[in-house]
Amino acid sequence: MATPTSPTELRQWLGLANYLHKYTKDYAGLIQPLSSLPKKDATWLWRPEHKAAFDSVKKSLASAPILMLPDDSKPFHVVCDASDFAIWCALMQFDDEGRE
Question: What is the pTM of this model?
Fold first, then answer.
């Protein structure tokens, strides 16, 4: 994913990241530097600390151990999402802790 260049792009990216936050340790701490940027009254100024936070969340999501073997005794469900710049879909099950 390319670095966001506007508040709208950052909001879109944070929407996806927020959906997957359960797989990221200390997610709230990682995104904290980004939290003021998507606000309507805020001036868009992408600084090195924003890039570092963005990259940290991307790295954490990319390295999350979320793949596991399917359990035929549990139901499957499909999750899909689309936007102007991306589309994704996943076949999921809930684990023993109730996470997708």
Answer: 0.65
Specify whether the CB–CB gap between 10 and 4 falls below 8 A: yes
CA nearest 59: which of 95, 89, 20, 87? 20
Is the residue at 45 inside a domain?
Answer: yes
Q: How confident is the model at residue 17 (pLDDT cuts 50, 70, 90)?
A: confident
Domain span at residue 79 reads 7-92
Q: Where are the alpha helices (DSSP H) in the chain?
A: 7-19, 27-31, 48-62
Assess contact for 37 and 44: CB atoms under 8 A. Answer: yes
Q: Tell whether 88 is covered by a domain.
A: yes
Domains in the chain: how many in total?
A: 1
pLDDT at position 66: 66
